[in-house]
Design goal:
heterodimer; A: 277 residues; alpha/beta; Rossmann fold; 2 domains; 6-stranded mixed beta sheet; 37% helix; globular; B: mainly alpha; ABC transporter involved in vitamin B12 uptake, BtuC; two-stranded antiparallel ribbon; 19 helices; 2 strands; binds adenosine-5'-triphosphate; binds magnesium ion; BCA_ABC_TP_C (chain A); ATP binding (chain A)
Chain lengths: 277, 396
């Protein structure tokens, strides 16, 4: 475990600024309001679930948090500092990492190289060193490979380091993608459906991993798999049609009638589809 | 080339001990040369082996073949740069012939001013690099067919400048280039080593081979470095690359500039080798044959760029000769060359999408497997995953 060498985040006592905050964010796609005045506050080392039916706006919310989607209105802040016009490449410097819904690995790179790209911010050598093959560039490469190997080991994928993604089963690809996000040593980690397509054994292991990560980072978990969400989250935000319909600890959210209605609505819609098909 | 990281991370056994007895130090050195532990070591070894082969060829083959090797050298330089752009960074360029023209014309304009030819060629490369910054900045915002169209416009339009500024650039006739004579030190060294004076043709081939060797060495370094890795990442998935903090625009422009500098160098060598720069030498056909070479050789592999260049340089005279011997008229025989190009290209697409380099790799792999145990096929990813799952369950 690398948590021993990891800087603990500033203690988040009452009144301290949240590690990351989204305030009153609205995103419209043409006539569709994907996010409607959504707010989200993340404490240090909190595991925060974001759930909601398909199309509720969960991925859009992550896109806003990572600078891929400019909100039509609303603000973002990191540890109390407002983030104006956030661009994706600034994320690593803000200590933010994210996995993509699905997998999103670089298909021409081995698992190790994929993770090394995630560790790229730790490089030291510049272009000239790379061009001339100076020892500095080689030392850099070894250091990044070392970090990448330990990240792969942490997600239990150490032995596939030299494989291309296409040669890996889907659950292992997801592990590699997770390692690529972890290796940047983020303080805030956004996970978009990490359990999607995984079997129950893999999901149990993922739950353990998320709990371990929470010792050193804030984790935002977008997930449909309710058992996982209820098991690992400290707090949960429920989205429906782009609006926050509930926030609270797992027990409170589970008992919330609005949440039950949203999911019931989805289920009856699904039932209708099944009926007509 | 994706296995480079893995290969280089194997710790080198038997590092030479500073205090060890001379014999073991020597054997450690031999071991290191035979199996270099770092990419740099491998690239240096490749450079030396290549130099030995090229020198042997240049001293043994006919003057006609020597001039063909010069031609090969500038194709290799341009194609190596293009494979970095297209194969490794995923940006297509149909305009590299025009960037070669920038290098060639700059060289031709500077040589009469009395500059040493190396300075002239390097200035040509810088000029092409500057054009590359402009084109690359535009290219970074374009995708697929739009990028192809924009660079195609460059290929068609830029040589037209030679007509517009006919006074300085020589119009349709172009500019003739005074070929540098072999300097005394080169002639002396050549005589000392091989017992004969070098011909100008040989001297030019040495220049071309030197440029090609250095370019391949430097690009191989880049390819195995952080830049090769992130260029490929940007090529494969823009969103994931951006999430990792990579600046797509900058990296794309950088790839374009490196590639343009190579094209400029190639144009300079072409100017020396053909003793002439004219619009007819930098047509769209040149740009397309560069792309053809890169695809035939295998996108993204520097070895492939060399192999593809060899096909483009040696195949046309070969089939033209065969055609003439088969009783075709000169005109008919000349038409065989583009036909074979096309045919080879189609065959490569169908049977070996990873090009000549991929073919060689696969044949090599089959040979090694036949040679005996110890290099069995890698375990399937599934087994590996299964094992790690089991291990994790045991520990929890
Ligand atoms: N780029 C876009 N342009 C137009 N509409 C979009 C775009 N991205 C998302 N949407 C729409 O916005 C709504 C929210 O989508 P989003 O992907 O955020 O949902 P989600 O909660 O992540 O759903 P899922 O659980 O299926 O992943 C959906 O109706 C979707 O169709
Ligand atoms: Mg989603």
């Amino acid at each position: 475990m690398t948590s021993a060498v990891h800087q603990p985040p500033a203690a988040g006592g009452p009144g301290a600024a949240p590690a990351f905050a989204v305030e009153d964010v609205t995103v419209r796609f043409g006539g569709l309001t994907a996010l409607d005045a959504v707010s989200l506050e993340l404490g240090a080392r909190e595991v925060h679930g974001v759930i909601g039916p398909n199309g509720a706006g969960k991925t859009t919310l992550l896109n806003v948090c990572c600078g891929f989607q400019r909100p039509d209105s609303g603000t973002l802040s990191r540890a109390g500092r407002p983030l104006a016009a956030l661009a994706p490449h600034q994320l690593v410097d803000l200590g933010i990492a994210r996995t993509l819904q699905g997998v999103g690995l670089f298909r021409g790179l081995t698992a190790l190289e994929n993770v090394m790209v995630g560790a790229d911010r730790h490089r030291r050598a510049g272009f000239l060193a790379a061009l001339l093959g100076l020892p500095r560039a080689e030392a850099d490469r070894r250091a990044l490979a070392e970090r990448a190997r330990s990240a792969l080991a942490e997600v239990g994928a150490a032995d596939v380091a030299d494989r291309l993604p296409a040669a890996l089963p889907y659950p292992v690809r997801k592990r590699v993608a997770l390692a690529r996000a972890l290796v940047a040593e983020p303080e805030i980690l956004f996970l978009d459906e990490p359990a999607g397509g995984l079997g129950s054994d893999d999901i149990d292991e993922l739950a353990g991993l998320i709990r371990r990560l929470a010792e050193r980072a804030t984790v935002v978990l977008v997930e449909h798999h309710m058992d996982l969400v209820m098991a690992v989250c400290d707090r949960i935000t429920v989205l429906d049609f782009g609006r926050v319909i509930a926030v609270g600890d797992p027990a409170a959210v589970q008992d919330d009638p609005a949440v039950a209605a949203a999911y019931l609505g989805e289920e009856s819609a699904r039932g209708d589809e099944g009926g007509t098909a | 080339m994706t296995d480079t990281e893995a290969a280089a991370d194997v710790p080198t056994p038997g590092r030479p001990q500073p205090s060890g007895p001379p014999a073991s130090r020597w054997s450690a050195l031999v071991a290191r040369v035979r199996r270099p532990g770092t990419p740099l070591g491998r690239h240096l070894r490749g450079l030396v082996i290549g130099a030995v082969i090229v020198i042997a060829l240049l001293e043994l083959v006919s003057p006609f073949r020597v001039s063909q090797i010069t031609t090969l050298s500038y194709y290799v330089v341009a194609c190596a740069g293009l494979t970095l752009l297209t194969g490794i960074n995923g940006q297509i360029s149909l305009g590299h012939g025009a960037l070669m023209a920038v290098g060639g014309y700059t060289t031709a304009l500077l040589l009469p001013a009395g500059l040493p030819f190396l300075v002239a060629i390097l200035t040509g490369a810088v000029a092409a690099g500057i054009v590359g910054i402009i084109v690359g900045a535009a290219a970074a915002k374009l995708h697929g067919p739009y990028l192809a169209g924009a660079t195609l416009a460059l290929a068609v339009g830029l040589p037209g400048l030679a007509l517009a500024f006919a006074d300085t650039l020589g119009g349709e006739q172009g500019l003739t280039v005074d070929v540098p004579r072999p300097p005394a030190w080169f002639a002396d060294a050549h005589f000392f080593l091989f017992g004969s004076d070098p011909s100008t043709t040989q001297y030019l081939a040495y220049i071309g081979a030197l440029v090609a060797g250095l370019v391949l060495f430097l690009l191989a370094n880049l390819h195995t470095s952080r830049y090769g890795r992130v260029w490929r990442a940007v090529r494969d998935d823009e969103v994931a690359a951006e999430l990792a903090g990579l600046r797509l625009g900058r990296l794309r422009v950088l790839a374009f500039v490196v590639s343009a500098v190579c094209a400029g160098l190639a144009g300079g060598v072409l100017a020396l080798a053909t003793r002439l720069v004219a619009p007819s030498g930098f047509t769209i056909v040149l740009s397309l044959s560069l792309i053809a070479a890169v695809v035939i050789g295998g996108l993204g592999s520097l070895t492939g760029a060399v192999l593809g260049s060899a096909v483009i340089v040696f195949l046309p005279p070969l089939v033209t000769g065969l055609g003439a011997r088969a009783g075709l008229s000169d005109v008919q025989a000349a038409e065989l060359a583009p036909l074979t190009y096309g045919l080879v290209l189609v065959l490569v697409m169908i049977f070996a999408a990873d090009g000549a380099a991929g073919l060689v790799r696969r044949l090599g792999g089959r040979l090694r497997r036949r040679q005996g145990p110890g290099t069995g096929p890698p375990r399937s990813g599934h087994d590996a995953a299964q094992e790690s799952d089991d291990a994790a369950r045991r520990t929890s």
